[in-house]
Amino acid sequence: MEIIKVSPRGYCRGVIQAIQIAKQTIQDYPDIPVYMLGMIVHNQYIVQEFKKAGVICLEDNHCSRLELLDQIDHGVVIFTAHGVSDAVYKKAEDKGLIIVDATCRDVKTTHDIVREHCKSHDVIYIGKHNHPEAEGVVGLSNRVYLVSSLEEASSLPALDHPLITCQTTLSMMDTEKLIRHCLSLYPDAILMNEICNATTIRQKAVLELKNVDVLIVVGDPHSNNSNQLKKCGVDAGIPRSYLIEHALELKPEMLKKTDRIAVTSGSSTPSVLTEQVISVLNQYAETGQFILPDALPSSMF
Prior knowledge:
By secondary structure, this protein is of the alpha/beta class. It starts with a strand and ends in a 14-residue tail after the last helix. The chain has eleven helices and twelve strands.
């Protein structure tokens, strides 16, 4: 059995930056509360590491970032890699909080583009409902229309020279379909596809796999880019594609009647988790024995 380690995989520069900023913040402010507004990146094990270090992580699927700020009276607030709206930033300033902004540079670029276009025109933003990145962009202006399906695009009002842009972590293929549909409805639209390079090259690497029986994606189920990698495996015609959080979720039946297994990981997945999965698969390939580790790695950093 052959194990293919897909490259590139794992951390992107935005995730590395966000983690480094959060770690530095803990050192810089040892004596006052440090809050994280949502998951610093979409991986629960990274979040748990910060909780162990004393960071107060605020996450509630029923609350916006603006509403989560109501839970903070003083101290430091870290904005996650996904970005926040201007209203969230202003509210944190008005509350007198120390702001640490770990927003990914690619997301900041999208914010700048949307702000500029909204001065005179509307924006069609292709993204996921209830995703923090989409929440941040849509919150920039009431001229931003969030679209996640062909049906939603078709129900938009008449718009003059709108900008069409998108969330950075979407499926290339699905987004292209939505973009084509939006352009058919608004032929005078300006297009700026903002799927980031890290997302693009990771998806292309999966889509280009040949003669693979199984794809294993290591990533958090909350991670959109991890879910999209699994979907790319399906789109590439790989018979079986799995999204797992760690090696302990591997099962022998995943590997039956398998000659070639490809392994990749989401851009917010710690490399130690992916390497542990690869180690289990390598041992199985060499010995035929399926042996899971006794525990997950003790540290994700």
